[in-house]
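Progress note, sequence design subtask.
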């Protein structure tokens, strides 16, 4: 397969990650976006028709119902998009002999661990969003599709989307004081690094001389920037860089608070640090630290 251009169906093409996937695609991947209203992932007939007509060799699913708090009230819709949709893609990928890349989340875990999460650790979602995303992973596993990568990621930010970095920059420009949750620990992830990781995994597959041996490489991968921090640490670093590069900063105090002091409808994992050794071993690539990638984001935003 090496050297050949591969046709990619990019699902949910208007989203934050999808736009980065489109921008970061190596030249041997030819990307076609699919999005609403012509393409609705909850409509199985539309999904089938669109994929059978386009006949992709790769399907990258960046589509999701990502409003975590709204999912609590709209679990049925969340389940259709996040839980059933990936299954429709997996079934059609199997029929077309295409490879599916599906993006999942740290919310499939309970967040009660005391060491970084590995791919085969027990799941245990604590929110409607987490349950719906876990169903999506299970639907792929149950489809019988062999050629899939489920890439779980966390605390995603990048251009073309609402994200924590932009929220902090806006608040820091408006307010004297910020109060940020300090008792949730995780790994921020820059969409540029995740998009690159997706193509690294896909390139492993195209470089492989022996598809049968390669089969062992399919499956679930954890991908996040290296290191860990709390939302409070993340906010401090964002404001610090903003000051250094001369962005408007009014905030002179950042106060660490507890999750209890800032209640939200959906429960967040307290601890969602990923062990990314599997990805690094498979690709031979090391992952930048979250601080390094945050700087990169400031250069491109
Ligand atoms: N953001 C994070 O912090 C985070 C963390 C971990 C994992 N993830 C995962 O990463 C992936 C990408 O997230 P993101 O932040 O890039 O999401 P996003 O910006 O919210 O984009 C999601 C896209 O999905 C589309 N979509 C929703 N329902 C659809 C449907 N029924 N049919 C077709 N398209 C539909 C939306 O389309 P419209 O534009 O029409 O609404 C939107 O463009 C998701 O799988 C998410 O679960 C995200």
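Output:
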């Amino acid at each position: 397969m090496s050297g050949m251009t591969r046709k990619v169906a990019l699902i949910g093409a208007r989203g934050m990650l999808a736009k980065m996937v489109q921008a970061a695609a190596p030249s041997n991947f030819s990307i076609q976006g699919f999005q609403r209203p012509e393409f609705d992932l909850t409509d199985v007939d539309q999904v089938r028709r669109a994929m059978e007509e386009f006949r992709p060799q790769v399907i990258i699913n960046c589509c999701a119902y990502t409003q975590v708090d709204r999912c609590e009230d709209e679990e049925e819709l969340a389940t259709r998009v996040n839980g059933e949709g990936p299954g429709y893609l997996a079934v059609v990928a199997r029929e077309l002999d295409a490879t599916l890349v599906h993006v999942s989340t740290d919310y499939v875990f309970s967040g009660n661990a005391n060491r970084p999460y590995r791919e085969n650790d027990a799941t245990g979602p604590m929110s409607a969003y987490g349950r719906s995303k876990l169903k999506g992973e299970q639907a792929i596993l149950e489809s019988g599709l062999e050629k899939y990568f489920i890439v779980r990621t966390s605390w995603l930010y990048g251009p073309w989307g609402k994200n924590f970095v932009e929220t902090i920059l806006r608040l820091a420009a408006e307010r004297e004081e910020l109060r940020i949750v300090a008792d949730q620990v995780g790994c921020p992830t820059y969409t540029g690094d995740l998009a690159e990781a997706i193509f690294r995994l896909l390139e492993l597959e195209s470089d492989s001389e022996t598809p049968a041996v390669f089969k062992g490489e399919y499956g679930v991968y954890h991908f996040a920037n290296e290191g860990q921090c709390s939302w409070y640490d993340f906010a401090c670093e964002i404001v610090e860089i903003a000051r250094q590069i001369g962005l408007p900063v009014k905030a002179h105090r950042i106060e660490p608070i507890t999750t209890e002091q800032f209640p939200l409808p959906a429960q967040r994992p307290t601890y969602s640090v990923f062990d990314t050794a599997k990805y690094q071993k498979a690709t031979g690539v090391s992952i930048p630290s979250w601080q390094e990638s945050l700087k990169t984001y400031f250069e491109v935003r």
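DSSP finds eleven helices and 13 strands in the chain. Work on this subtask will continue into the next period as scheduled.
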